Amino acid sequence: MPSTPLIAPVEPDRRYGRPPMLHVRPPADPEQWVRSHRDPLLAAVAAHGSVLVRGLRLRTPEHVALVLEQLEVPPVTEQESFAPRQPYAEGVYPATKWPQNEPMCMHHELSYNLDFPGLLLFACLTAPTDGGATAVADASAVVDALPHGLVERFERQGWILTRSYNGEIGASVAEAFGTDDHDAVDSHCRAAGIDVSWQHDGTLRTRQRRSAVLRHPVDGRRCWFNQIAFLNEWTINPDIREYLIGEYGADGLPFNTFWGDGEPLTQDAVQQINRVYEAHTSRTPWLAGDLLLVDNIRTAHSREPFTGPREVAVAMAAPRRVADCSPTIEVNPS
């Protein structure tokens, strides 16, 4: 137990749309502070879904790896990534590369996998000049605010993610699966309930069906847990979407999402989801050294456009299985 009790983070300020925040006096040893406050920190995340710790003065990816170690939660290795990135350390990665003038919409990390991280750590090593917040949204509030008919259909049918690994846009086969050996990729996909189609030119296309709503394995709350809007064609910049379709065809987009029966999503349906996310978004501009802890099931996150340099390290931990979260869609790995 810490010698000085941890002051509980303030409740989210709905009027200003800010997440729970804890201000600490800068410690001489941030890792020691995290080790001493491990239990109340994790309790704060469980109570609020996320908490921003300000004052730790984290400076390097090595600091983040040490913080993760002090929390004593198992790291998670990223699989089936949609954009390439090399890890700093086990479970610790740079932020996903994404055009800095484009938003990265609300999503849950690796929500298209059967295994995913239950806890995320975001550490701001260099704050941008303007913008660039890692915003959060309560997934339980989102599922309650979405149109009933839309949620009911997704609960009943699930959602489909299609991917095309064309070697030019997004992660390559080797970057997503750790190998470009066809047999090894096929084996991974069979175990993950992913349909595989190798094209005549050697490129890979995949299709997987997943639950859109899960129940939190700790408290049973119902959560909107997916990347339906983020990875959909209607969320892509219109000019880029037009170029990609012209270059690769409508079936060859790097990623796209559909209703669980395969019917294309309308632009209106995707905009409805994003509007509800925006209405439930909490954001606070980054300061260098900040640490944001996020329950990856209960809380979605996004990245807003920014200017200037921005370096954020991301740690994935506390592995979870979809099968333990009351999925509405049964996936039968073959």
Automatic annotation (TrEMBL):
Its cofactor is Fe(2+). Keywords: Antibiotic biosynthesis, Dioxygenase, Iron, Oxidoreductase. Residues 28-315 form the TauD/TfdA-like domain. InterPro entries: AlphaKG_dependent_hydroxylases, TauD-like_sf, TauD/TfdA-like. Residues 1-22 are annotated as: Disordered. Pfam families: TauD (PF02668). One of its GO terms (molecular function) is dioxygenase activity. It comes from the Bacteria. The keyword Zinc-finger does not apply. This is TauD/TfdA family dioxygenase. It comes from Actinacidiphila polyblastidii.
